[in-house]
Amino acid sequence: MLRIAVPNKGSLSGPAADMLHEAGYRQRRESKELRIVDPGNEVEFFYLRPRDIAIYVSSGRLDIGITGRDLLVDSGADAEEILPLGFARSTFRFAGKPGTAGGVEELKGRTVATSYEGIVARHLADSGVDASVVHLDGAVETAIELGVAEVIADVVETGTSLRNAGLEVFGEPIMKSEAIVIRRTGADVEEPKVQQFLRRLQGVLVARTYVMMDYDCRVEQLEKAVALTPGLESPTVSPLHNEGWVAVRAMVPAKEAQRIMDDLYAIGARAILTTAIHACRL
Ligand SMILES: Nc1ncnc2c1ncn2[C@@H]1O[C@H](COP(=O)(O)OP(=O)(O)OP(=O)(O)O)[C@@H](O)[C@H]1O
Ligand SMILES: O=P(O)(O)OC[C@H]1O[C@H](OP(=O)(O)OP(=O)(O)O)[C@H](O)[C@@H]1O
Ligand SMILES: [Mg+2]
């Protein structure tokens, strides 16, 4: 049975459960459940604090975990990223009152408040800057107003929390994060059960990013049309009862679907349809 750690709270928890559900796995019905077995898929899910997941996975007691890249790096645990999942995207940045500093090199002798002490301490050391780090559990934006630190380092998504606290980011982003799948460093990722789990999640990612496009076009326009919809490998082309016409079917990136439909229409394609893909194995 594959043992998988899933975030039980916070920004990662809802989207992770949604993705697992879309991938055909049983998920817990209520937030108090700490573990559930999905016997049909031979998987057991453990609902753990996002911050602890890398530690459990690095111990080898759990085979796989879903966590944030920033949390993995912060933990320093012996686990590695094996698949990025595309949700809970954020950057990790320094911020302060306007004019506080222009970059990390100006932080010598100053105090930085953060919930991600591991990332910050390493970044300061790599930059050769000697500054103090104060660990806070959350809501670190308030630390400046209350005089606990001059600078914070925190997760930034829309920037709303910083704006509301009258703070501005400065310097280069320290890191970019998103939800990821992790495995103990050096553990075999080729193991069939692990590969099957990854293929299911990849199927969800593809189904979310692509749509299926169908259209009819004249044989003379086929090469131009296929150049617009090359598909992942090659489009399917079938004859139509009407001589001189063919039907084409190909996957296209969902974000480009409307533009591609306009371009196909412009070269004479008709009956252009897009449909959602619910699941796939490439
Ligand atoms: N506003 C946000 N947008 C996107 N990702 C976020 C956001 N806030 C936190 N994250 C990501 O969520 C993970 C942290 O999860 P965690 O549950 O510890 O914090 P949280 O989402 O802030 O929840 P909590 O309410 O417990 O503080 C990190 O990978 C972080 O990058
Ligand atoms: O750039 P934004 O879109 O505002 O998002 C970033 C904020 O979201 C998270 O805070 P959360 O609400 O989880 O509170 P916390 O600080 O207590 O973790 C994070 O710690 C930032 O404060
Ligand atoms: Mg938070």
TrEMBL record:
Keywords: Amino-acid biosynthesis, ATP-binding, Cytoplasm, Glycosyltransferase, Histidine biosynthesis, Magnesium, Metal-binding, Nucleotide-binding, Transferase. Its cofactor is Mg(2+). Feedback inhibited by histidine. It is found in: Cytoplasm. GO terms for cellular component: cytoplasm. Residues 49-203 form the ATP phosphoribosyltransferase catalytic domain. It holds the Pfam family HisG_C. Pathway: Amino-acid biosynthesis; L-histidine biosynthesis; L-histidine from 5-phospho-alpha-D-ribose 1-diphosphate: step 1/9. Its EC number is 2.4.2.17. GO terms for biological process: L-histidine biosynthetic process. Its main location: cytoplasm. One of its GO terms (molecular function) is ATP binding. Signal peptide: none annotated. It is an enzyme of class 2 (transferase). It catalyses: 1-(5-phospho-beta-D-ribosyl)-ATP + diphosphate = 5-phospho-alpha-D-ribose 1-diphosphate + ATP. Residues 207-278 form the Histidine biosynthesis HisG C-terminal domain. InterPro entries: ATP-PRT_HisG_long, ATP_PRibTrfase_cat, ATP_PRibTrfase_HisG, HisG_C, N-reg_PII-like_a/b, N-reg_PII/ATP_PRibTrfase_C. Belongs to the ATP phosphoribosyltransferase family. Long subfamily. Catalyzes the condensation of ATP and 5-phosphoribose 1-diphosphate to form N'-(5'-phosphoribosyl)-ATP (PR-ATP). Has a crucial role in the pathway because the rate of histidine biosynthesis seems to be controlled primarily by regulation of HisG enzymatic activity. This is ATP phosphoribosyltransferase. It comes from Streptomyces malaysiense. The lineage of its organism: Bacteria, Bacillati, Actinomycetota, Actinomycetes, Kitasatosporales.
